[in-house]
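Predict structure. Chain length: 240.
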Amino acid sequence: MNRSAEGAPVLRAEGLWKVYGEGDAEVRALRGVDLALYAGEFVVLLGASGSGKSTLLNILGGLDTPTAGRLTYLDHDLTDASDDQLTRYRREHVGFVFQFYNLIPSLTARENVALVTELSDDPLDPDDALALVGLGPRAEHFPSELSGGEQQRVAIARAVAKRPDMLLCDEPTGALDCATGRLVLTVLDRVNRELGTTTAIITHNAPIATMAHRVVTMADGAITQDLRNERRASPESLRW
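Prediction complete.
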Protein backbone atom coordinates (compact mmCIF):
# COMPACT_ATOMS: atom_id res chain seq x y z
CA MET A 1 0.00 0.00 0.00
CA ASN A 2 1.13 3.56 -0.60
CA ARG A 3 -0.42 6.97 -0.65
CA SER A 4 -2.39 6.11 -3.78
CA ALA A 5 -4.46 3.94 -1.44
CA GLU A 6 -4.57 6.88 0.91
CA GLY A 7 -7.16 7.53 3.62
CA ALA A 8 -6.13 9.23 6.83
CA PRO A 9 -2.42 9.70 7.57
CA VAL A 10 -0.67 7.35 9.96
CA LEU A 11 1.33 10.27 11.33
CA ARG A 12 0.63 13.98 10.95
CA ALA A 13 2.78 16.95 11.96
CA GLU A 14 1.17 20.39 11.91
CA GLY A 15 3.07 23.64 12.35
CA LEU A 16 6.06 22.07 14.09
CA TRP A 17 8.63 24.47 15.51
CA LYS A 18 11.79 23.50 17.34
CA VAL A 19 13.83 26.27 18.93
CA TYR A 20 17.06 25.78 20.86
CA GLY A 21 18.64 28.42 23.09
CA GLU A 22 17.54 31.99 23.71
CA GLY A 23 18.34 35.51 22.56
CA ASP A 24 21.43 35.79 20.36
CA ALA A 25 22.05 32.05 20.81
CA GLU A 26 18.59 31.06 19.57
CA VAL A 27 18.54 28.44 16.81
CA ARG A 28 15.29 27.72 14.93
CA ALA A 29 15.83 24.13 13.83
CA LEU A 30 12.24 23.73 12.55
CA ARG A 31 10.02 26.53 11.27
CA GLY A 32 6.35 25.61 11.01
CA VAL A 33 6.69 22.18 9.38
CA ASP A 34 3.56 20.40 8.09
CA LEU A 35 3.98 16.75 7.05
CA ALA A 36 1.82 13.64 6.77
CA LEU A 37 3.01 10.04 6.42
CA TYR A 38 0.62 7.49 4.93
CA ALA A 39 0.38 3.74 5.48
CA GLY A 40 2.88 1.73 3.47
CA GLU A 41 4.57 4.60 1.67
CA PHE A 42 8.30 5.09 1.22
CA VAL A 43 9.35 8.71 1.80
CA VAL A 44 12.76 10.33 1.45
CA LEU A 45 13.43 13.54 3.38
CA LEU A 46 16.15 15.28 1.39
CA GLY A 47 18.28 18.22 2.44
CA ALA A 48 21.73 19.51 3.27
CA SER A 49 23.30 19.19 6.69
CA GLY A 50 21.59 21.60 9.08
CA SER A 51 18.32 21.72 7.12
CA GLY A 52 16.31 20.26 10.03
CA LYS A 53 15.93 16.67 8.76
CA SER A 54 17.23 14.90 11.86
CA THR A 55 15.35 17.21 14.21
CA LEU A 56 12.11 16.45 12.36
CA LEU A 57 12.77 12.70 12.33
CA ASN A 58 13.51 12.69 16.06
CA ILE A 59 10.21 14.45 16.78
CA LEU A 60 8.25 12.14 14.46
CA GLY A 61 9.78 9.17 16.27
CA GLY A 62 9.09 10.46 19.77
CA LEU A 63 12.77 10.95 20.61
CA ASP A 64 12.28 14.70 20.97
CA THR A 65 9.37 17.09 21.43
CA PRO A 66 8.48 20.24 19.47
CA THR A 67 8.61 23.74 20.89
CA ALA A 68 5.27 24.44 19.20
CA GLY A 69 2.88 22.68 16.84
CA ARG A 70 0.94 19.42 16.92
CA LEU A 71 1.88 15.77 16.32
CA THR A 72 -0.71 13.00 16.02
CA TYR A 73 -0.31 9.26 15.46
CA LEU A 74 -3.60 7.82 14.15
CA ASP A 75 -6.08 9.11 16.74
CA HIS A 76 -3.46 9.67 19.46
CA ASP A 77 -2.31 13.23 20.14
CA LEU A 78 1.40 13.08 20.98
CA THR A 79 1.87 16.83 21.32
CA ASP A 80 1.85 16.88 25.11
CA ALA A 81 2.62 13.20 25.69
CA SER A 82 4.51 12.28 28.85
CA ASP A 83 7.89 10.54 28.74
CA ASP A 84 6.19 7.24 29.55
CA GLN A 85 3.68 7.72 26.73
CA LEU A 86 6.44 8.56 24.24
CA THR A 87 8.40 5.51 25.38
CA ARG A 88 5.34 3.33 24.75
CA TYR A 89 4.81 4.96 21.35
CA ARG A 90 8.42 4.25 20.34
CA ARG A 91 8.34 0.71 21.67
CA GLU A 92 5.05 -0.29 20.07
CA HIS A 93 5.01 1.60 16.78
CA VAL A 94 8.44 2.89 15.64
CA GLY A 95 11.64 1.24 14.46
CA PHE A 96 14.84 3.29 14.11
CA VAL A 97 17.88 2.85 11.88
CA PHE A 98 20.78 5.26 12.35
CA GLN A 99 23.97 6.02 10.45
CA PHE A 100 25.99 4.20 13.12
CA TYR A 101 24.79 0.72 13.88
CA ASN A 102 24.72 0.76 17.72
CA LEU A 103 25.10 -3.00 17.98
CA ILE A 104 26.27 -4.54 21.26
CA PRO A 105 29.76 -5.90 20.54
CA SER A 106 29.55 -8.81 22.97
CA LEU A 107 26.34 -10.20 21.41
CA THR A 108 25.93 -12.15 18.19
CA ALA A 109 23.77 -10.87 15.36
CA ARG A 110 20.91 -13.09 16.53
CA GLU A 111 21.28 -11.91 20.13
CA ASN A 112 21.32 -8.25 19.08
CA VAL A 113 18.00 -8.77 17.28
CA ALA A 114 16.54 -10.87 20.10
CA LEU A 115 16.99 -7.99 22.55
CA VAL A 116 14.20 -6.13 20.77
CA THR A 117 11.90 -9.11 20.31
CA GLU A 118 11.88 -9.74 24.06
CA LEU A 119 10.14 -6.37 24.51
CA SER A 120 7.54 -6.83 21.77
CA ASP A 121 4.06 -8.33 21.83
CA ASP A 122 4.12 -9.96 18.38
CA PRO A 123 7.71 -9.95 17.11
CA LEU A 124 9.33 -11.67 14.19
CA ASP A 125 11.57 -14.57 15.12
CA PRO A 126 15.17 -13.21 15.18
CA ASP A 127 16.22 -15.77 12.58
CA ASP A 128 13.34 -14.71 10.31
CA ALA A 129 14.32 -11.07 10.70
CA LEU A 130 17.93 -11.86 9.80
CA ALA A 131 16.78 -13.94 6.82
CA LEU A 132 14.71 -10.97 5.62
CA VAL A 133 17.88 -8.86 5.40
CA GLY A 134 19.90 -11.68 3.84
CA LEU A 135 21.98 -12.54 6.90
CA GLY A 136 20.60 -15.89 8.01
CA PRO A 137 24.01 -17.61 7.67
CA ARG A 138 25.69 -14.87 9.75
CA ALA A 139 23.41 -15.15 12.78
CA GLU A 140 26.13 -16.46 15.10
CA HIS A 141 28.71 -13.84 14.12
CA PHE A 142 29.67 -10.96 16.39
CA PRO A 143 29.65 -7.36 15.08
CA SER A 144 33.46 -7.35 14.84
CA GLU A 145 33.18 -10.28 12.42
CA LEU A 146 30.76 -8.45 10.13
CA SER A 147 31.36 -5.79 7.49
CA GLY A 148 29.86 -2.32 7.86
CA GLY A 149 27.04 -3.17 5.46
CA GLU A 150 26.30 -6.41 7.32
CA GLN A 151 26.22 -4.57 10.64
CA GLN A 152 23.76 -2.07 9.19
CA ARG A 153 21.58 -4.92 7.94
CA VAL A 154 21.61 -6.43 11.45
CA ALA A 155 20.49 -3.01 12.72
CA ILE A 156 17.63 -3.07 10.19
CA ALA A 157 16.68 -6.61 11.25
CA ARG A 158 16.64 -5.44 14.86
CA ALA A 159 14.42 -2.48 13.95
CA VAL A 160 11.88 -4.50 11.94
CA ALA A 161 11.80 -7.53 14.25
CA LYS A 162 9.24 -5.89 16.52
CA ARG A 163 6.97 -5.33 13.47
CA PRO A 164 6.84 -1.52 13.75
CA ASP A 165 4.20 0.46 11.90
CA MET A 166 6.90 2.95 10.88
CA LEU A 167 10.60 2.63 10.14
CA LEU A 168 12.55 5.90 10.51
CA CYS A 169 16.07 5.92 9.08
CA ASP A 170 18.65 8.67 9.70
CA GLU A 171 21.35 8.60 6.98
CA PRO A 172 21.39 4.76 6.91
CA THR A 173 23.99 4.70 4.12
CA GLY A 174 26.07 7.62 5.39
CA ALA A 175 28.95 5.47 6.64
CA LEU A 176 28.93 3.10 3.66
CA ASP A 177 30.41 3.06 0.16
CA CYS A 178 28.04 3.17 -2.82
CA ALA A 179 27.93 -0.58 -3.49
CA THR A 180 27.30 -1.45 0.16
CA GLY A 181 24.79 1.39 0.47
CA ARG A 182 22.78 -0.05 -2.43
CA LEU A 183 22.56 -3.38 -0.59
CA VAL A 184 21.22 -1.64 2.51
CA LEU A 185 18.69 0.36 0.45
CA THR A 186 17.58 -2.86 -1.26
CA VAL A 187 16.84 -4.31 2.18
CA LEU A 188 14.86 -1.22 3.23
CA ASP A 189 12.90 -1.38 -0.03
CA ARG A 190 12.16 -5.05 0.58
CA VAL A 191 10.92 -4.36 4.12
CA ASN A 192 8.62 -1.64 2.77
CA ARG A 193 7.25 -3.83 -0.03
CA GLU A 194 6.92 -7.15 1.81
CA LEU A 195 5.89 -6.00 5.29
CA GLY A 196 4.07 -2.81 4.25
CA THR A 197 6.06 -0.80 6.79
CA THR A 198 5.73 2.96 6.37
CA THR A 199 9.34 3.98 5.78
CA ALA A 200 11.02 7.40 5.96
CA ILE A 201 14.69 7.93 5.16
CA ILE A 202 16.55 11.18 5.71
CA THR A 203 19.57 11.80 3.52
CA HIS A 204 21.61 14.53 1.86
CA ASN A 205 22.19 12.13 -1.05
CA ALA A 206 19.89 13.16 -3.93
CA PRO A 207 20.06 9.90 -5.97
CA ILE A 208 18.45 8.00 -3.09
CA ALA A 209 15.31 10.14 -3.49
CA THR A 210 14.58 8.51 -6.85
CA MET A 211 13.58 5.21 -5.18
CA ALA A 212 10.85 6.79 -3.02
CA HIS A 213 7.12 7.15 -3.52
CA ARG A 214 7.48 10.74 -2.31
CA VAL A 215 10.37 13.18 -1.87
CA VAL A 216 10.18 15.90 0.77
CA THR A 217 12.91 18.53 0.45
CA MET A 218 13.98 20.62 3.45
CA ALA A 219 16.07 23.78 3.80
CA ASP A 220 16.61 26.09 6.77
CA GLY A 221 14.16 24.21 8.98
CA ALA A 222 11.25 24.27 6.53
CA ILE A 223 9.80 22.02 3.83
CA THR A 224 10.43 23.63 0.45
CA GLN A 225 9.02 20.88 -1.79
CA ASP A 226 6.84 17.78 -1.48
CA LEU A 227 6.64 15.77 -4.71
CA ARG A 228 5.69 12.27 -5.80
CA ASN A 229 7.91 10.24 -8.10
CA GLU A 230 5.98 9.15 -11.17
CA ARG A 231 8.37 6.22 -11.51
CA ARG A 232 10.49 4.73 -8.76
CA ALA A 233 14.09 3.76 -9.43
CA SER A 234 15.30 0.39 -8.17
CA PRO A 235 17.89 0.59 -5.39
CA GLU A 236 20.24 -1.53 -7.49
CA SER A 237 20.31 1.15 -10.19
CA LEU A 238 21.42 3.99 -7.91
CA ARG A 239 24.85 5.60 -8.26
CA TRP A 240 26.48 8.34 -6.19
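Summary: The longest strand covers residues 27-37.
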